[in-house]
Amino acid sequence: MDVLTTERLVLRPFTAEDEQFVADLHRHPGIVRFLPDQATTTPERTRAQLERFLSYADHPVQGMWCITRSDGTPVGLLMLKEIPFSAGSPRAEGEPDVEIGWRVHPGHEGRGYVTEAAERVLQHAWDSGLPRVIAVTDPENTASQRVCARLGLRDEGLTGDYYDETVRLFVLDRPADVQPGEGAL
């Protein structure tokens, strides 16, 4: 997994030293409200989350990046991963979709970190040859929906095709003028 940088941020793989940050991040009221199955309510759940994040360390394209400021302070998470289809979804027979998603620590909201990190991961996705990326949000998660809009993702409305839930689907195709780079699939 590549370390990615922006003007203000470093997106790096998670390490074992990030356990407390993972616990704090996943106690965020937005996580508890919109992704209750991701909440770290026990040390065991925190370790399981961290192990899942660490499992992406060797993937050439997908990843779970710890978003840090340039001074090393962790501020959030950015993910690029295959998304599970819902049971019985007609789409499950096709190629898997790749999802971009994010979580930001409440102490670092409203500073544009997620949008900046997501823009960099989208460039990584295009350079790696991905033809499209999707995002899904809880239908009531307007903050994440605003990030999707800032990133240029099209709102495709509600769907039941992912996570066995009704979610709002956003889609972004690789721009025609962007060709895959060295890391192409």
Structural classification = alpha+beta
Rg computed from alpha carbons, rounded to a whole number of angstroms: 16 Å
The biggest beta sheet reads: 5 strands, antiparallel
- Give the SSE string: EEHHHEEEHEHEE
How many beta-strand elements?
8
Write down the overall mean pLDDT. 87
Beta-strand percent range: 25-35%
Helicity level: 25-40%
What is the terminal-to-terminal distance? 14 Å
Low-confidence stretches: none
State the helix count: 5
Gross morphology: globular
Strand order of the largest sheet: 1-2-3-4-5
Give an overview of the whole structure.
The protein is α+β, with helices and mostly antiparallel strands and 185 residues long. It is 27% helix and 29% strand. It contains 5 helices and 8 strands. The protein has helices at residues 19-25, 29-34, 43-54, 113-127, 142-151; strands at residues 4-5, 9-13, 63-69, 74-82, 98-104, 132-137, 154-162, 165-173. The strands form 2 sheets. The chain has a 5-stranded antiparallel beta sheet, covered by helices on one side. The longest helix has 15 residues, at 113-127. The protein is globular and about 40 Å long. The mean pLDDT is 87.
Quick structural summary:
Helices cover 27% and strands 29% of the residues. The chain has 185 residues and is α+β, with helices and mostly antiparallel strands.
Comma- or semicolon-separated keywords:
alpha+beta, three-stranded antiparallel β-sheet, 29% strand, 185 residues, 8 strands, single chain, five-stranded antiparallel β-sheet
